[in-house]
Write a structure and sequence with these properties.
Chain A is of the alpha/beta class. Chain A contains 17 helices and 21 strands. The longest helix of chain A is centred in the middle third of the chain and has 16 residues. Chain C is of the alpha/beta class. Classes of the chains: A alpha/beta, B mainly alpha, C alpha/beta.
């Protein structure tokens, strides 16, 4: 019923879909799987009319379609259940279901009773019992997911896209959702099901398509393949010699944290970090890696946690204290919380170390700051259009280098970098990797958080795998023996 | 498989409705208590004359608050209403007194001009993606300057009997502006509660991204809402000119803050997504009664501003508190899920 | 359970609020007669003086008072305050009109309900107010002109700093010219400049005036704003001291101007008498509220008040006048 041929899409010159073919049959559950950034979400957003494709054809029910707006896709019979829910918490379940196709009279006044009755009928068909008059905000996430499905049914959708519908559901709620999905399937509705949880996909889907780096890798009947095949296809490439060598020598424990918890995100995290070592934190998005690191420096308030730096207890009550003691956290979000984009690079690099740049009158010495910035420009190979350029005018890679320089200026003993190479070109990437390794070799303990599994594996001497706010595995990678399959196994449910 | 039963939503629905109801009943009870208290201690409160004065005291701000309710629910704010109000006074007066236009023509032209100002507000907000507080503050200051410049700071008076009726005439024994306020509140209240166009405001105020995903033309709705707000402010200005028998640039100074205060006290979330006309009407009545109590009790009026400021702070803090509670509830769900998974996977090999 | 608790809280809060209102002004109710003053720019020093006079006069007969009105220029808020005071049942209201026309309806409504209303300082002439209590601008200008005439005689050559189109300013200038002529027929006003009510503009236009007319030896400021600018102009042409000093006549009782008078920078300032406005406002309201055997001639049913406006007069303050010191001590409210 849905047939995509040669669909392409790029953002800001960065191609995220390379001439992709994809099809869905009526009455099947078609699983879509791939690493973060493989292009799954872009693809389904194009199908649902949220994004415009750059090229290629989309056929729906044998007709060429071109949706300019989500509403057009909805009227054509394609609905999407979003990962972050698109429901409005303050209004009722029934009103949410009939949003933009209200049951109303010719003057536009809503017929609440008809809408509640309609919603109740849909729920009855789905076999769920949700009060149509309750505000959506009072429902659990699982129930909200079912309301989204009901909304799709109310639109007479014949193709429903579910973007990671189970990512925030409990086991019981997932089971309930699957009952509904099977029922939809039996009615001949096609379903695209995106999930990271392989076991689920094997349980619910008929066919499975793997995406990698914006390319369609394979589409297989579920009966033909195994979990191992899928992981192999997802990971694909081999980790070349792109990464610097592993640690030559690992020293004593420099930093220890015990029972770090953050309400709703992180549970009893305990680990240690050695001098000269790079520790990688792997896991799916939302598994709590970033939250755990932010909780360590108390950038987000933690529930509990004790810390030892060089064998003495430290409190780490805020990021500034952490920095004073030599623990520097580099945020994953350089635009929002990492850099002052409107200022030149010397202001950024010295932002947390201004007290070191004084002239003999005790005032800020801009000259000293500028000299220091110049040395970083050299060591980090930061490419500047001109010396006084604002940071916003730099490319992503150079911005990331500035961010790293800013973190290095206080001379940290522990450096925690979150997504050190996100949105960075290949050249800058390997330079940043090399500098991080040099830093470790000089005796600093380095923690790398990354969603890119090759990066975590390629860089780290040891890897902690996160799932649901907890560490599920600790893998020794001094020999480079860890594979993506091993990490994936611990990062996902089975 | 037995049906999936959601007991939680049924229980919470009644709880949620109760909270809103308690809020309104509470506000009403405080208002009534102040009214009765001042009557008891000072007298002369529950007289027809005083109640009329009480209502007329805040009726123009009340009319502006009705439009403001729509703006606030959609997640915006309109600071320009006070200068649109004074501008409408001056424009309608100039059209009648200086240009010699008949009353209906002057009113229609004035209202249409105000609607245009609202459209300009809305257009700038959606086109430049600037926070409405900045855009409407710009309009507020610009228009105040215009008001001063086109009148040289002098007032305009000398209106016909027919026009003055709009300010101080009585319908069934009630002043016309109050009748206008009641009728407008009823009509807008019904529309906001039941009409599919106005229901979109709650969606937009709840989050623009979901609104766009649901296929709502967010920009169009926003522009229309600012038009509505400016038109109501213009209508209030026309009636005010009639009521005072003069148009003057200084009239309605800070009315925008009183209107916003009424909306906030009425329980609307100032960040958008919630609020009702009923709540706003209660908020207007509350502010009017508090002001009246100050005059009746002859407490040093320098304190009035202090108390109304504190009232606003309390209202805003309350709405913030509710928000935090919602956020915490979401966190609690996450934590519960983590706990559940942790127990269910216990024993699984790492 | 929770809603019950909320309701209890609400009840408690209301009780506290009601008690608060009660305790702060229970005495006000016992007082036999209560009068009110309504101003704009509430809190300004000028109207504080006026209210102090109003209050002090009320104390002499055991009456109580209150002050109402906006802290800005919004005359419509004054109109609402008048309405509210009438509804509350005060014995009389003195109002200074932030805008003459805006207050007409409210003043008339009050008078129709037999609540005596008068205007002070700023009049609302189209209304039915009993009378206006305030400075007669012609007389005030006359006093200033006469003082200059007495000092310089026929040699007085005056320049005037003004902004056009304002009735009060025009009357002051006419009065000034008449006062000057009354004692020094040979004296002349040789230039008038428009300062637009702005300090910097005043310095600019007065400097130009002095350069074009070196014979000028007096600058008369016809309103409150330009005095400091005019003084700066005399400094610009080097005639702020010595034998050739230009006499600057200010029209204000702000503390900086009074200090300038004390130090001899300003030769004189025209001091209005807001305290007297307050005193007279109260006394006339009291009189209007207590009818005697003869009815009020203009307003039957009210007690007797003057049938003409009441001029509270001005004082021409010069260096060494003890009143300068007195005016610099703000009134007790």
């Amino acid at each position: 019923m849905l047939d995509l041929r040669g669909v392409t899409k790029s953002f800001f010159g960065n191609q995220v879909l390379h001439a992709v073919d994809f099809n869905v049959r009526a009455g099947e559950v078609h699983a879509l799987i791939g690493e973060n950034g493989a292009g799954k979400s872009t693809l389904v957003n194009i199908i649902a009319g949220i994004l415009k494709r750059d090229g290629g054809d989309i056929m729906f029910d044998g007709k060429l379609v071109d949706f300019g707006h989500p509403l057009e896709a909805m009227t054509a019979g394609i609905s999407m259940v979003h990962q972050e829910l698109s429901l409005v918490p303050n209004i009722s379940v029934a009103e949410n279901i009939y949003l933009r196709h209200e049951k109303s009279n010719t003057l536009g006044f809503n017929d609440w009773r008809a809408m509640r009755r309609g919603a109740a009928e849909i729920f009855e068909r789905m076999g769920v019992d949700i009060d149509p008059a309750a505000p959506v905000g009072s429902l659990s996430v699982g129930m909200q997911q079912l309301v989204e499905v009901a909304k799709a049914i109310s639109l007479n959708a014949r193709l429903i896209i579910m973007d990671e519908p189970t990512s925030s559901l409990s086991e019981k709620e997932i089971a309930e959702l699957f009952v509904v999905v099977r029922d939809l399937k039996a009615r001949g509705i096609g379903i695209i099901f995106i999930s990271h949880k392989l076991s689920e996909l094997f349980e619910i889907s008929d066919r499975l398509t793997v995406f990698r780096d914006g390319q369609h890798i394979a589409t297989k009947d579920i009966a033909e393949i195994t979990t191992e095949d899928v992981i192999q296809m997802m990971v694909g490439r081999h980790l070349g010699d792109l990464f610097p060598p592993k640690a030559s020598q690992i020293g004593d424990v420099v930093f220890e944290c015990t029972n770090v918890s953050r309400f709703g995100y992180v549970r009893d995290l305990t680990f240690n970090l050695r001098r000269g070592e790079i520790l990688g934190l792997a896991g799916l998005v939302g598994s709590g890696r970033t939250e755990a690191m932010r909780a360590i420096v108390n950038a987000d308030r933690r529930l509990s946690g004790r810390f030892k730096l060089n064998d003495s207890e430290v409190s780490l009550s805020d990021p500034f204290e952490a920095m004073r003691r030599g623990i520097v956290y580099v945020s994953e979000d350089r635009k929002q919380s990492g850099l002052f984009l409107g200022y030149d690079i010397s202001a950024n690099i010295g932002a947390s170390t201004l007290q070191h740049y004084r002239n003999r009158f005790g005032m800020l010495s801009r000259a000293a700051l500028r000299n220091k910035a110049r040395t970083y420009v050299d060591t980090m190979s930061i490419r500047l259009p001109n010396v006084l350029a604002r940071t916003i005018d730099l490319s992503g890679g150079n911005q990331q280098k500035v961010l790293l320089a800013k973190a290095l200026d206080p001379q940290p003993t522990v450096l925690i970098v979150d997504e050190p190479t996100r949105g960075v070109d290949v050249g800058a990437k390997s330079l940043i990797h090399a500098r991080l390794r040099e830093l470790a070799e000089s005796g600093v303990g380095v923690v790398i958080v990354s969603s890119e599994m090759p990066e975590v594996i390629g860089m780290s001497d040891r890897i902690l795998v996160f799932r649901n706010g907890e560490v599920t595995a600790e893998l020794d990678n001094r020999s480079g023996a860890v594979t993506q399959e091993m990490v994936m196994t611990h990062a996902t449910h089975h | 498989m037995p049906p999936i039963i959601d007991r939680q939503s049924r229980a919470q629905r009644s709880a949620g409705q109760k909270t809103a109801l308690v809020q309104y009943i509470g506000l009403f009870a405080i208002t009534l208590a102040i009214l009765l208290g001042t009557q008891l201690f000072f007298g002369n409160v529950l007289t027809a004359a005083n109640l009329e004065v009480l209502a007329m005291n805040l009726v123009f701000e009340g009319i502006m608050a009705l439009g403001m309710t729509f703006v606030v629910i959609s997640g915006g704010i309109d600071l320009s209403v006070a200068s649109v109000f004074a501008f409408a006074e001056i424009l309608v007066a100039k059209l009648m007194v200086e240009a010699g236009l008949p009353v209906p023509a002057a009113i229609v032209i004035t209202l249409v001009t105000c609607t245009g100002i609202g459209a300009l507000n809305g257009f700038m907000i959606v086109a430049f993606r600037v926070h409405p507080i900045i855009i409407t503050m710009g309009t507020l200051l610009t228009l105040r300057g215009v008001n001063l410049a086109i009148t040289d700071g002098r007032s305009i008076s000398g209106f016909s009997e027919g026009f003055v009726f709009l300010g101080s005439g009585k319908v069934l024994g009630i002043n016309f502006p109050i009748v206008f306020f009641i009728v407008t509140a009823l009509v807008l209240g019904v529309l906001l509660a039941n009409h599919r166009f106005f229901r979109q405001l709650y969606v937009i105020g709840g989050g623009e991204r979901p609104a766009r995903l649901s296929g709502i033309n967010v920009n169009r709705v926003k522009i229309i809402i600012y038009m509505l707000s400016a038109t109501l402010a213009g209508a209030a200005g026309i009636m005010a000119a009639a009521r005072y028998g003069a148009a003057h640039w200084g009239h309605g100074n800070l009315a925008e803050l009183k209107a916003i205060a009424a909306v906030a006290v009425g329980g609307a979330n100032i960040n958008g997504g919630s609020g009702t006309i009923g709540g706003t009407v209660l908020g207007v009545i509350f502010l009017a009664v508090v002001h009246n109590a100050f005059v009746t009790s002859a407490v040093n009026t320098f304190w009035y501003d202090v108390v109304s400021g504190v009232m606003l702070l309390v209202a805003v803090l309350l709405s913030r508190l509710t928000q935090r509670r919602n956020l915490f509830a979401q966190l609690r769900i996450r934590q519960a899920k983590m706990d559940q998974i942790a127990t269910s996977t216990k024993g699984e090999s790492l | 359970m929770k809603s019950m608790k909320n309701l209890l809280g609400v009840a408690a809060v209301s009780a506290v609020i009601a008690a608060g209102f009660a305790s702060t002004s229970a005495r006000a109710q016992e007082a036999p007669e209560h009068y009110a003053m309504v101003v704009f720019l509430k809190g300004s020093e000028f109207f504080n003086w006026a209210y102090a006079g109003f209050q002090d006069a009320a104390k002499t007969v055991g009456a109580t008072t209150e002050l109402q009105g906006p802290a800005d220029w919004d005359a419509s808020a004054e109109a609402r305050a008048v309405d509210q005071l009438v509804a509350k049942g005060v014995k009389g209201i003195a109002v200074t009109a932030g805008d003459a026309d805006t207050l007409v309806a409210s003043i008339n409504a009050a008078m129709d309900k037999s609540v005596p209303v008068l205007t002070f300082d700023s009049d609302s002439p189209k209304s039915k107010r009993l009378l206006f209590v305030g400075t007669n601008n012609f007389n005030a200008g006359f006093a200033a002109g006469k003082a200059i005439g007495e000092k310089h005689g026929d040699n007085a050559r005056a320049g005037i700093s003004l902004f056009p189109g304002n009735d009060a300013v025009n009357q002051r200038i006419q009065g000034f010219k008449a006062g000057l002529a009354s004692v020094a027929p040979g004296a002349k006003v040789i230039a008038e400049v428009n300062d637009e009510g702005d300090l910097q503009k005043a310095e600019q236009v007065n400097t130009a005036m002095l350069q074009a007319n070196p014979e000028i030896n007096v600058i008369f400021c016809a309103h409150g704003n330009p005095a400091t600018g005019a003084l700066a102009a005399t400094r610009n042409v080097g005639r702020d001291q010595g034998d050739n000093k230009i006499d600057v006549v200010a029209w204000a009782i702000d503390v900086p101007i009074l200090l300038g008078v004390q130090e001899g920078e300003f030769t004189m300032t025209v001091a209005q008498n807001p305290y007297m406005m307050g005193v007279q406002s109260f006394l006339q309201l009291w009189s209007a509220a207590h009818p005697t055997q003869f009815d009020n001639m203009n307003h039957p049913g009210f007690g007797n008040v003057p049938t003409a406006d009441l001029d509270t007069g001005v004082k021409i303050l010069m260096q060494g006048d003890p009143a300068v010191e007195a005016l610099m001590t703000p009134p007790q409210l």
